[in-house]
Amino acid sequence: MTDKTFRAVYETVGTYDELLLRHYYGGTEDVDLVADWLTEHYAAPAATLHVAEFGCGTGRITDAFAPYAARMVLADYSEIMVSAVTQKFPAAETICADTSDAVARLLAAGQAGAFDLVSAFWSLSYPIGEFFEELSSVGVRLRDDQAGAADQAGEFVHDLVQLVAPGGHLLVMLFDAESPEQQLVTRAWEKVAPFPRGGRAYTRHVLIDALRAAESRGEGTLSHLRLGGVAWAPDREAAREWFFGVHFKHHPQLLEDREVAREVEDFLDRYEMASGGVAIPSGVHFIDFHAVAHPYASLPIGIDS
Ligand SMILES: C[S@@+](CC[C@H](N)C(=O)[O-])C[C@H]1O[C@@H](n2cnc3c(N)ncnc32)[C@H](O)[C@@H]1O
After folding, report:
1. Which of 105, 223, 224, 259 sits at 20 to 30 Å (Cα–Cα) from 34?
2. Residuewise pLDDT in 10s, the chain (305 residues)
């Protein structure tokens, strides 16, 4: 029986694994997108990389880069998640803190430039969003100083980049706020409170703008790919809980809203397949910031000799 308390998805044992749907992009599961990226960039695993992952959850994607890592720092705000990764990767260093605090803590401990790979999969919109708004079971409250929030969020991205070693990468996967699934989610959350800056894509814009600024300062190159795909629910109930448990985090107002319930059922009607499974259209933004001396390091070797 699924725990229906607010935020149970990240804060009670087993709920995330129970509710998570598998996501495929061009037939490749999200974990394998990362595995393929690792093969492309590092060839065979050699256990040499120093890696930091923020919002690591139960270590689902950590599995892909663990064989490449000599050192892993795994961070998540949820004690349940940190305890899951501690069991799975006993040699990893763990931090139980909000991502912005974890990043600040690492920098204060002299870890600037310490990581070949800094990563966050499906988790960076939370700490970015928290600069602008506060989410609790009673609602979402926009912070008073939105301009100040934008500055702080930009600083936070800058700090993330500071953790990357010369030649290393910041690798991020973010949800696509413009997909039909996420538009439904946005309409529902808008009933609780409006989103800052005209919609839920703003966290991605904050990230991309800050990384473009870093590129303009010569700190690296930004590559950004949007992939279309599907979240696969084996049955209608799994798809329903994907909305209510994961997207709406069992927020009491959204659990009780009949209009939201109707909209979710209509959505499921539209994407249900003959087998009873539901193929939810999904999109992911795959973002890679490569910390090289831009533009000098972007030339093919030998071109200026
Ligand atoms: C969608 S899950 C992704 C987990 C994992 N990266 C994966 O792909 O399976 C989001 C994760 O971010 C964590 N999280 C949410 N808000 C956070 C914050 N502000 N700081 C740190 N972690 C946060 C949650 O506890 C959860 O583990």
Report:
1. 105
2. 567 777 776 777 777 888 899 999 999 999 999 999 999 999 888 899 999 999 999 999 999 999 999 999 999 999 999 999 999 999 999 999 999 999 999 999 999 999 999 999 999 999 999 999 887 666 678 888 999 999 999 999 999 999 999 999 999 999 999 999 999 998 998 888 777 766 789 999 999 999 999 999 999 999 999 999 999 999 999 999 999 999 998 998 999 999 999 999 999 999 999 999 999 999 999 999 999 999 998 888 888 87
Whole domain around residue 226: which residue ranges? 29-180+192-232+281-295
CB atoms within 10 A of CB 156: 21
- Domain annotation covers residue 259: no
In a domain, 10, yes or no: no
Pocket test for ligand 1, best of 29, 32, 77, 105 (most atoms within 8 A of CB): 77
**Cα torsion at 183, 186, 188, 192 (round to 10°)?**
-170
Tell me, using a 6 A CB cutoff, whether residue 120 lines ligand 1.
no
Taking only Cα atoms into account, the Rg of the chain, rounded to an integer number of angstroms, comes to 20
Q: What distance in angstroms lies between residue 259's CA and the mean position of ligand 1's atoms?
A: 28
CATH number, domain of 82, equals: 3.40.50.150
Token pair, residue 38, equals: 């690792």
Instruction: Please indicate whether residue 121, judged by its CB atom, sits closer than 6 Å to ligand 1.
Output: yes
Q: How many A from CA of 122 to the centre of ligand 1? A: 7
CA distances from 244 to 107, 135, 277 (A): 37, 16, 17
- Considering the domain boundaries, does residue 202 fall inside one? yes
Tally of domains in the chain = 1
